Amino acid sequence: MTFFPYLLEGLARTVSIKRSRSYGNDVGREAAIALAKEARRNELVLSSTGTIRNNKSSKFTSVCSKRGNKGINQDSFVVWEDYGFQEDMMFCGIFDGHGPWGHVVAKQVRQLLPSALLCNWQETIALRSPSEDPEADFESLSWFEIWKQSYLKTYAAMDLELKHNRRIDSYHSGTTALTIVKQGDHLIIANIGDCRAVLATTSDHSSLLPIQLTVDFKPDLPQEAERITQSRGKVSSSHDEPGVYRVWNPNGETPGFAISRAFGDYCVKEYGLISVPDVTHRKISSQDQFVILATDGVWDVISNKEAVRIVSSAPDREKSAKRLVECAAQEWKRKRRGFAVDDISAICLFFDAAWTQAANYSLKVTKELSP
């Protein structure tokens, strides 16, 4: 594994002055921000609808976002190819803001989180005990724990930064955050909120099957509801929205939030809503074809199976994310007639160089999903 020299220099200084933690963190953060700026100059970072094609590897990414009719688009996303200037790494993140300042919160997280995670990950590696093998196998528990601890530290710091940022009102506003780091043939997934990651894998019968990699963190999930009620928060649904459970403060006076984990939303943070991510790992096999990251604007009207079918049947994978977003927009009009269409965003990350459709997925999806 190789590291970008400038970042290593900053992290070496961090190790040498471990007793001055704040200064060391500043050095590492500056180095990570510098890497992000350099990546943008090299067109390795994408934060608007489009595609990233890596000529050095088989990875290919398609991204699309469509504003709903609720006002400004509060979805935000980022794809960073050669994450940290390491050719075997990629960062993907998708964020769904909510509340009056939701779009601002989502953009702030999009801008700061990738470089902050990179800084914490590299710092954790640099601060490992000398007795630990630097070439340790990725599958070892300690190696995954490095990623997990880096994610936990980064999400906690990100939430704290929002709390103290006087230019952003995140008291009644916040954002979900679903991020994936692809390192070699491994995926590290971290999630808060109800964005979802779905993997498309080939079955023994050569058809594509969906595997959901994340949990939709809704307030009525047993473990989430238990934490909220133990923190004196309330979980309930209204007559206007039957089946939609929300988090409330004890008096029920704050805006109810339909998610149990998010950045921001400080009006209910002391009542059980948290920003602690669920961090998991998946090793990519030869059967795995691509992964979809999407906001709930997709998943509220498109099933996992339908999403895999739509993406796999796209004649041009450069437009696969756009195809999924457009199909979701059609389904909103058909299934949610009379409701305001949500913002819809998706990232499609392909693993293999050759784009071959599964034999059982030649169905004309657009025709099937049309009104």
TrEMBL record:
Top enzyme class of this protein? hydrolase
* Highest taxon of the lineage: Eukaryota
Domain PPM-type phosphatase: residue ranges: 60-351
Which Pfam families does UniProt cross-reference here?
A: PP2C
UniProt keywords, alphabetically: Hydrolase, Magnesium, Manganese, Metal-binding, Protein phosphatase
Q: Which GO terms describe its molecular function?
A: metal ion binding; protein serine/threonine phosphatase activity
- Its transmembrane ranges are none
Q: Which SUPFAM superfamilies match?
A: PP2C-like (SSF81606)
The protein's required cofactor(s) are namely: Mg(2+); Mn(2+)
Reaction(s) catalysed by this chain, per the record, are:
O-phospho-L-threonyl-[protein] + H2O = L-threonyl-[protein] + phosphate; O-phospho-L-seryl-[protein] + H2O = L-seryl-[protein] + phosphate
* UniProt-listed Enzyme Commission number(s): 3.1.3.16
Where does this protein have coiled-coil stretches?
Answer: none
- Show the InterPro entries listed in the entry: PP2C (IPR015655), PPM-type-like_dom_sf (IPR036457), PPM-type_phosphatase-like_dom (IPR001932)
Q: Offer one example of a GO biological process linked to this entry.
A: negative regulation of growth
Family per record: Belongs to the PP2C family.
Q: What is this protein called?
A: protein-serine/threonine phosphatase
Q: Which organism is it from?
A: Punica granatum
